[in-house]
Every structure is written in C-alpha cells, then in structure tokens.
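## tool: complex_structure
## caller: assistant
## args:
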Amino acid sequence: MSHPAWSASTTHTRRPERELMASEPITGGLRTAGNLFSFGLDTVVSLPRRPFQIREFIQQAWFIASVTILPTALVSIPFGAVIALQLGTLTRQLGAQSFTGAASVLAVVREASPIVTALLIAGAAGSAICADLGSRKIREELDAMQVLGINPIQRLVVPRVVACMLIGLLLNGLVSVVGVSGGYFFNVIIQGGTPGAYLASFTALAQLPDLWSAEIKAVIFGFIAAVVASYKGMNAGGGPKGVGDAVNQSVVITFMLLFFVNFVVTAIYFQVVPAKGS
Amino acid sequence: MGVEVKVEGLTKSFGRQVIWSDVSLTLPAGEISVLLGPSGTGKSVFLKNLIGLLKPDRGSITIQGNDLTKLSERKLYEVRKLFGVLFQDGALFGSMNLYDNIAFPLREHTRKSESEVKRIVDDKMEMVGLAGTERKLPGEISGGMRKRAGLARALVLDPEIVLVDEPDSGLDPVRTAYINQLFVDLNQQIGATFLIVTHDVNTARTVPDNIGLLYRRHLAMFGPREMLLSSEEPVVRQFLNAQRQGPIGMSEEKDVGELEAERQAGYEMPPLPPIALQLLPTDGQVRAGQRPPGAWCQANGVTPPPGSFQDPPGVAGSAGNARHAQSSGWTKPAGRADDDTLALPRVEG
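## result:
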C-alpha cells in the first residue's frame, strides 16, 4: 500500500461541498446566500400550513424567553445608564437640560432597544436553536423525521421562528421599559437631574410611531435570527465540530444581517414618518 | 405484501466527484436484498437517494409507478410513508423516551386513539425485544437497544419497504446474529421488501435472497445470492470472502503494478468456500422470497463449491437441514416472477 494513494482517497471521501466552496469562493458564497433566502421562503410558505405545532411553539417560546429575559434586563440597565450619562453631560454643555428625558427616551426606544434585542436574540436564542438543530442533524434525527414523512421545516423551524418573533417583540418592550427606568435612575439620582423635567419632556421629541417601528424591527430581527440559526443548524455537517462551527457562523452572520437590516429599516422609517415638529 | 423498487441508470456525484454512475437494479417485492461494498463506495448515499433525501443527477427510481426523482416535495412525503428506514445509530429523537419515539409516526400520521397507539407500540416493542424499557431515554440505553428501538419505530406504520443502514456497525457478533435473525423473521411476518446496506460479509452470506456489490463507482453485480456466492468474478470473489488478494486495495483499487506483483508472486485466489445455508425464520414458516438451497445453481448449471448447503460442522442435529429439505419441495407463491427472469445475471465491468 502506498501512502500517497491513501491520502488522496481520504481527501476525496467527505465534505465535497466544502471543497466546492473553497474552489469557487464567489459562486459558493452566492449559493449559500441563495440557499439561505430560499430556506427563509420555505419557512414563510410553511407558516400557514396545518397543523401548526402549538406544543412545540409554546415550549420554544418558553425556552427562548427563559434564556433571554435575565441577560436582556441586565444589559439594558447599563445601556440606559450610559445613554443617560452621555446625554446628561451633552445637554448640560448645550444648555438644554430640560430635554434630557426626551433625548434619553428617543435614544432608548428608537435605537437601543432593537439593538439590545437583536444582540440577545441572536446571541442567546439563535445559538441555542442552531446547536439544538445541528445536533439533531448530525444524529440523523432530521433525516429520520423526513423519512417518517414529516417536514422538519414545518415541524421544527416554523414554531421556532414564530416563537423568536414573539419573544423579540416582548423583549423589545422589556428593554424599552428597563432602559428608560435605568436612564431615569442615573439622571435623577446620580446626576441630580429634576424628576419633573425628565418625565415632562418624555413626549417632547418621541412619538408613538417610534415605538411601532422599534417593535416591527424586533419582530424582523427575531425572524432573521431564527431563520439563520435554523438554516445553519440544519446544514451542519462533519460531526460535533461541524455543529460548533455552525453555531459560530450563525451568530456572526445574524449579527451582520441584523445591523444591516436595522440601518435599512431606520432609513426607511425616517422617509416614511416625519420627525416631530418638523 | 412488499412492493418492487426499480432503479434505472442512477448516477450521483458531489461536485466533480462521481460517487457511482449508471446503477440499475430491481429489488424484487417481498425479498431480502443486501447491498455490499468496500467502505466509502457510497452505499449510504445510495440509500439516501432511494428515499429521496438526496437527488440523483440522472436515472429513475420507480415505486408503484411513481418516479421518486421527479416527485414534488409534498408527494414525496406521501410516498415515504411506504418506507421504514433504520439508520446507523437508530436516529432516535433524543428528547423523547423510547415509547414516544416509537409512537411518534402514529401520532403524526394517524388519528388513532391513545389506547390503540399503546397497543401497537407495545406490540412492536415486544417484537424487537424491548418490552419494559418504554420510559428510557435514547441516551440511557446501549447501541444495540437503540438500533432495535429504531427498527421498532421504522415498523410502526407497517412499511412495504424496509431499508437498513449498516445493522452490524457497532454491534458484537452475537447481537448481530440476533438482529439478522430478526430481519428474516420480520420479512416472513410482514412480507416487506428489505434492503440491507452493510459491509459485513457474514451477514451478506447468510441473510439475503439477493446480493449487490458496489465497487469502483458502479454496481459490479446484482443477483440471487447463489449467483454471487459462486461467482468467479475477482472483485465479487475477493469481497465476499474477505481476502487481501484481488483487485480491491487498501485505499481504493490496487494499481496495475501491485496486481502485477501479486500475479508474479504466483498467488492464486483461494478456492471458493462452501455456500452457507440461508437463515430460516425461527417459527419454521417459509418466507415468500425463499428459494430451496441450490436451486439457482441447478437451474443455471453452476456447480456450487464442495460442501455447500450443509450445516456447518459442529451444529448439532440437522433440524435446519430437515427444514431446508422441506422447503425444497416448495411451491412457487403466487405473484412471484419467474425464476429465470429473476436469475438473469447482471454482470457489468
């Protein structure tokens, strides 16, 4: 037995897709993007298909909520505080202390809360979903499910996506409340601002559509995070290491997508909804 | 009672790498077939093509008039209900206990009441010898038990076709013997078409009615067991007798130099070992696909190696032989194709 022959055959036996992608970086990347998009479409098409997996949906929603609520709250307190500190200093420099509350609410509701939601949904929920589906994939559970005549997209992905969207929506509300409270605490207690001015200026700049747009963003983020995580998980390969890689990639891809989508949605929002007083 | 699976001109490649090309074979209804091949010849890939988990590049797979390669996604899920598949590690759902795993297809696809589900699940668990382990999780049991539980789940919807991926991987010889006997008994009881993918030569020699051999990116041979077991074709001979001498090398095929060296060393392939008796159902019934030992050899004028179709020495009594003799006076069950057409040798390459 000659060694070169052995090594040549071993490199040939597995992971042909990886080879393909290495040899054609551009088409490989495009293909992945296309596959991800069609996976998202499949999910949307499967959404209304009966029977909806209510049990799976409730379990997943509960699970996602349980892994995200505490970190979200803990992240949003310092986030609100930082904004309050920055604005507190800035407004004093500009001589507009009475608008501290207004600016703080605007910053938290419009930008901070969808971003914090995005980070937590992608980091905590997305990685958990990806690891779960990835380990099912390498144990051939997904193949077994398909062979038993059950579509894993409908059975597993759709409930997770809907659960992520719902929890995204709720988390966004949580971040807004906790963030604004944190801001209030730091502005009033630490920096010695006036509570009345802070509260009275709440509606000076912010308006209701700000909240709607934030909630819509959160729902979109939930959808994207769950679809990317599911796609990466269901296409994991190459044993336990493959699952680890998939989780890593899913979190990175989700972050990039979410920040980009956040920019696009914000840009559209400013075109559609005129700022107050302008 | 089993359906025929007709595969024609199937070709599959990943990227530029051809896995196998132009594979044509027919799994006769209600019979047990084994697909053999050296490691890495795409046996599992073939299985995944058969159930539509992978799409072949060319060719057709016909089951009950449906070409699996051209069906829509939704129709494919319908046709898949004909299949029961046992994956290598059982592929049980890790979050459910054994009972829920086996009940899963019933709960998803039928409107049976929970008591009816329980009756069927208990029955299947009894069949594979897992009664009393209903509440165990897949992580808590041994590999052999996982395989049997996977088998029970595959059988729960009364499949017409049972596909088995490497039943012997990770099992000790005793458990392998038990699970092989289980396949023969199941085939007798439910009459489904079986396809077992393996590289265990002992399984291939004693279990199936038909044997196929995948080698060098094509199907080297497919036909009745006696045809392959008495074949002089070097690849078939080497593989079925697990020898080093022959065209199959450590990595893939041996190169010309190695074969030449082997020939110059004056090495002759050892004589064919006797053809063993086929495993019989334990309850003494005759399987639909079963043929009397030596029938194919006789019909085709092939002299089997000396000592064939006898109980191996050391097996006390000749109960097996007596039962085989009984089945020699066996009549053709209705609905079976002519022996001549079945025995049509498909030799390629």
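## assistant note: The longest helix of chain A spans residues 54-94. Residues 1-21 of chain A have pLDDT under 50 and may be disordered. Handing back to user.
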